Every structure is written in C-alpha cells, then in structure tokens.
Amino acid sequence: MFWGHLKLMGEVMAMFPGTVHPQYAVTTMCHMFDLPGAFYLDLWPLGPEFLVIVDPDIALHTTVIKNHPKHGDIPMHVDPIVGKDNIVSINGPKWKYLHNMLAPAFAVSRIRGMVGMIGDEVMQFRATLKKFAESGEIFHMEHTASCLTFDVIGTAVFGPGSSLGAQINGSSPSLQNFMDIMTYNAVQRDSKNPWTKFTARQKRLTATSELNATLSTLIRQRYNELERDNVDVSQKRKLTIMDLVLRDRLEETRKTGGGTEAGLNPEFMDVALTQIKTMLLAGTGTTNDTITFTYMLLSKHPEVVQKLREEHTRVFAPTIEETHEMLHNPDHHNKINDLTYTEHVVKETLRFFPIGSSGRSEDENGYFDFKGERYVTKGHFLLIVSHAMQLNPKLFPNAGTWDPDRFARNESPRHAWRPFERGPRACLGQTLAMDELKIILLLTVRDFDFHCSGLTPNKTPRVPWTDMDLTFGDRAFQEFVFEARPRDGMPMTVSKVGKP
Asked: Exposure winner among 111, 192, 306, 406, fewest CB in 10 A?
C-alpha cells in the first residue's frame, strides 16, 4: 500500500481524546486484530517503518540477549529537551563512558542512604497537602508532586542542603524552565502552523538558555569547591551525581595543573549540562507521573488504601512522626523492602501507566532469528511497547482490572512488566524511583484521602480493552508531551482522614 498503515493509525488514534500518547494506538491494534508478538507498522512518509515488539520474549532478545542500539531517531525527540550526546539516546563507547560515570550514584546502598532525605522532602509535601485539605481548594496534583520529585532529584544531583526549593516556593525557575521546554517542544512537534512552530521553538530556546545559565553557575560553584578544598573524588560511591560528572575532568586538570577555565571549557560544559539535565528530568518525570496516577486510582479503591495503611503501621510505626524518625535511622532503612503490598500498588499503577516505549535500531545483521521466525530489521525502527504487553490478557490475566495483588500471585512472566525497560539500557534510576514512591505513600496515605475533581466519566468505553474511562473519563488516557503524562494536570482535592 502506498500510504502504508497511516489511515489505520489515524482511525485508531481518533478513538481517543486529543494529544493521547501513541502507545494507546498500538495496544488497541493488538486487541482489535489479535496481532502477533512482533509486527510491521508502516507510517511512511509521516514516520518510520516500525517493527513493533509486544512479546516479552522477543523484547528480552532485543534488549538483553542482543541489546540492539538505540535508534538514530531518538536524539530528535530527546536532544531538544536535554542536549546532544545524552545517556538516553547515545550509543557505543560514549554511552559506556557515561554509564560508568553515573551508575555509582544509583547503587542500592547509595539509594538507601538517601531514605532520610526523601522522608524530609515528603514531610514538606505533607505540609502542602495539609494546606490544601484545610482550604478545600482544587489543585493540580501533577504540578504539586513534580515540586516534590524535583527537589528530591535536585538533592541527589547537587548534594545535601542543596534543595532546589520547588516545594517551599510552589515551583522553581529551573522546574518551570523544564516544563516550558517540554511544553513548547510538543507544540513545535505537533503544530501544523509555521508561525506557531517558530514561536514555540523560540520560547523553548529561551527557556533552555535560562536553565543552562542557572545550572552552569551551580556546576562552576561546585567545581571551584572541589578544587579549592582539594576534595578526594576517588571513592565514587560517596559522590553526588554532580561530583561524578566533574570527577574525571577534575582529576585530569589536577594532573596537568590546569585551572578552572581549562577544566570547564565549553566542550566539557556542554557534556556536564546535558547529563545533569538528563538526570533532573528523568528523576522528576516517572516518579511524578506515577504517584499522580496512584493517587487517582486510590481515590476509587478504599480497600487498597486500607491494606496500605495496615502495612505501613505494621512494618514501621503507628504514627507518621515515628515513621519519619525511623527513616533517619540506617538500622530501619531496609524496612523499605518489607513494604511488599506498597510495591505491588506502585507496580500495578506502572503496568497501566508506563511513561513510554523503547526505540531500538537494527543490528549489524539487519535481521534476527527467534524461535524459528526471521524478523527483518534493516531500515526499521524497533519499537518495544511495554503498554501493549502489560495490558495483554494473555500475559496478565484480567488485564483491564487494577489489582495490586496480582504481583503476589506470580501469574505473569517477570519480564513482561517493563516500565523501566530491561537489560543494560534499563533506567539507571529505577531503584531510586521505586523507593521514593514507596516512601511518598508511606508518609501520606494514612493521613489523607484523595479525590479527583471535575471527572466526566464516559458513558461507554472508548475501546474494548479497558473500561477505566467509565470511572475517570478521559483522564484514564495519558497525553503525549515529552513522556506519557497525566491529562489536565490531574485536578484533585485532598482531605484529612476522618474528615469529609
């Protein structure tokens, strides 16, 4: 067909509200046509020719066993947000160097050392929720939660005592810059109007320039501190993300006798800015989106809320004050592992609402063989769609039902759940994200009830594979900005437990 599958793609996308993430179209096609675990989707001339992978074994083959490189189109989507040669989209030796540079910051032992800090930030989040509970006002959970997650990752990047202040101030210039960059990039990407595209690009570049200026100042300040105080940077596990980015350059200039200007030349500053922006963005988006959707789901599942509250009291302590104090005691840090049901709630939310898909490229052969089938990959974009796998009833029985207990039953292939992807290119920060999400729930659900505001439930389901929109309306469908994001900012109200 001359136009490939464009017509079909348009028809399926039209089933959903505007700006929906394309992963919903793939999932719907899989259900409509009972598609196999890998199939071809031709969107030429408006997009690439895809080999869509929705089978966990084939996905494992391409991300772990063969580990296909990231597709060459990925930078087109990621670079405008964080800069060129970022760890998300780059391949080969440069990726290995960046991975070795940053991985120590996300070691499990290092993450557990951050538990107390995360608890402190969540207590500030609680104070914000308390104000909203007292006023009864409608607020946007996505924004409120993003202030929390931005401050947490900001401290992980820049070190203790360096919170970016988004929660205290209700936002921060850097967080707003990020939001503007993503929003205007989406407008530039989606608009058909040349003037709209031009003005969106200019606004994105302005926000990028402001963000770069702020972060450059922080980079120079920290580099000067390390140089002035002759800080030992040989022990990677003790360093912040910022220090890990600066470490090799600092050691190099110490050997050669170069000063700050030699160490922080424009080429290195570009590298440092890109990786720090990547970490800030990655550490904010997934966690923020997931806690927002979790609160949405909990608002209609009191039985799940009750089980969470029981687990939190049993594993930690009856009061929030005692629980917060325990989070500052290293002897209790591993209790995070005992929040089994809480983890299942988070995993079940991520099953319904992963933030996106993974794009891989052909390997040197231009094809791969799997279980007697040959899949031609030459010239194709290998699109691994976790959303379609995780909503597949053959892999997850009663896939359309939000049921955290399914993970206790071990009824699905382990590698079919892949919101952080798997293999060497899996998300570096997934342990931080999971611990942070568990701590947020630990310190909030016993004292607060969450309520979605302004819901307009659909009278009939938009698609046959989910009826979640009968409860939540179109908020059941993530919108496509940079990642798959909560729709409308998730307007909510909150009340103290025991009060209407």
From this structure: 192
